Amino acid sequence: MKKLYFFGISFLLFVVIGQNAYAAAREWELDQAHSNIYFSVGHIYSKIQGHFNEFSAKVSFDPANLKESHFFVKIKVDSIDTGISKRDKHLLSADFFESGKHPLITFESKTITDAGKGVYEVAGRLNIKGKEYDLTLPLTFAGVKDHPAVPGKQVAGFNGTITVDRIVLNVGDEKFYKMGLVGKDVEVLVTFEALAVK
Amino acid sequence: MNNSAKRSSLFTANGYRSLIMLGIALLLGGALAVPFYYETQTLWYKVGPDKILLRAGQLAGMLTLVLLMLQIIVAQRVSFIENLFGSAHLMRWHRINGVLVACTALIHVVLVLAPEGMNNLPIGKKYLPEMIGELLFLMILITVVSSHCRSLLRLDYATWRMVHRPLGYFALVLVFIHVFFVSESFTHILPRSLLIVIFAGLALFTGVIQRTRLGRSHWK
C-alpha cells in the first residue's frame, strides 16, 4: 500500500513539475484595431509612408519564459496601402512585391533574448517573395496592464522598428534606386497590442 | 436653279462634310495628344517595353473614348448629318465603328493591365474607377456581340433595340466616370474642363434630339 502511495505521489509530482518545466508562454490575441505594420521609404527627397491593412499574428509571450515565447506574423501583401491606389498597384507588380506569385509575407521567431531596458531581440526567419532571410527585430515590450475598456482582460503592448534593405530582400531590383527615384532602405515600424484573459 | 447656285449648294454640302471631318480629326488629334502632353505619373515609373505598352494602352483608351462619342452622335440619326452622308452609309459606319470600339477597348484593357501583371488585376473598392472601366468593357462587348449576332442569339428586333439603346447611353455615362476618375491626365485643368464641356454638350445634344423625337411621335 505504501508503495502505491509513493508511486501515486511521484506520478503527481512528475506531472506538476513536468508541466511547469514545459509550460507554454502566455498566449495573446492580437487587437487588430490597435495594431499596425507601417513602412517608410525614400522617394528622391521625400518619404513615402504606407502600411499593411491585413495581417495576423500569433503571440505567445512571457518575459519570464522567453524560451517558450513565440511570434508568428502573416501579412497579406495585397493589403498594402500608401494612400494612392495606382502606386499600390505598382508596388504589387513584378517591379516590387509581385503579389500574384507571392501573396504572403511571414515572420516566425526562433529565439527571443532579453536585451535589457524592456527590449527583446526577436530573431527569426522572414519569408518574403518565396525566399527566407534571417531577421532580428528589436521589440520593446511596453508592459502588461488591465485593459481600461475591457473588464477581465489584460493588454500587452509591443513596438519595434527596423530598417531593411528592400534590394537585399528582392523587393524590386536596383532600377528605381539607380534612377534616384525610390530608396533601398525601408524603415518598418511594428506596433501592436494584444489581449489575454486576466 | 442656275449652275452657280448648284455649285454653291454642292460646295456647302462638301464644306459641311469637310468641316465635320476636320472636327473629328481635331478631336482625335487632341485626344491622342493628351497622354503625351499630360503624361501620367504611372508612366514615369515605367521603363522599357512596359512604358511603350502603357502609352499604347492609353492611346487605345483615348481612341475608344472618341469613337464611342462619335457612335452616340451617329446613333441620334440627325437629319442634317444623314442628308450629308446618307443614312445607309451612316448605318454601315455605326456597325463598323461598334466593332472598332470593342477592338480598341480590348487593346486598351490588355495594354494597360499588362505592365502591372495579369495576376495583379485592379479588383476591389479601392479600384472603383478601374472596375467601372471593366464593367464598361463588358457592356461594350455585350452591345457589339448582341448587335452582330442578333439572329444567332434569337433576339427579335424590338427586344434588341430596347436593350441596345439604354446600353449605349449607359456606356457614355460610364466612360465619362471612368476617364474622369481613372486618368491622371484628366486631373489637369484644361483636359478636365474640355472633358466636362464635351460630355455636357453631348448629353444636351442627345437629350434634345430624343425629346424632339418623342414629341414628334406623340404628335403623330
Protein model, in words:
The complex is a heterodimer of chains A (about 200) and B (about 220). Helices cover about 15% and strands about 50% of the residues of chain A. By secondary structure, chain A is α+β, with helices and mostly antiparallel strands. Chain A has an eight-stranded antiparallel β-barrel. The two termini of chain A are about 40 Å apart. Helix content of chain B is about 80%, strand content about 0%. Chain B contains eight helices and no strands.
Summary tags:
heterodimer; A: 198 residues; alpha+beta; Lipocalin; eight-stranded antiparallel barrel; 3 helices; 52% strand; B: 220 residues; mainly alpha; 0% strand; globular
Summarize the structure.
Chain A is of the alpha+beta class. Helix content of chain A is 16%, strand content 52%. With 220 residues, chain B is mostly helical.
Write the layout of secondary structure elements.
The complex is a heterodimer of chains A (198) and B (220).
Chain A: H1 2-21, E1 27-30, E2 36-43, E3 46-52, E4 55-60, E5 70-76, E6 80-81, H2 85-92, E7 104-116, E8 119-128, E9 131-146, E10 153-165, H3 175-178, E11 182-197
Chain B: H1 3-37, H2 41-44, H3 49-75, H4 79-85, H5 87-113, H6 128-148, H7 157-182, H8 189-219
Helix pairs in contact in B: 1-3, 3-5, 3-7, 4-5, 5-6, 6-7
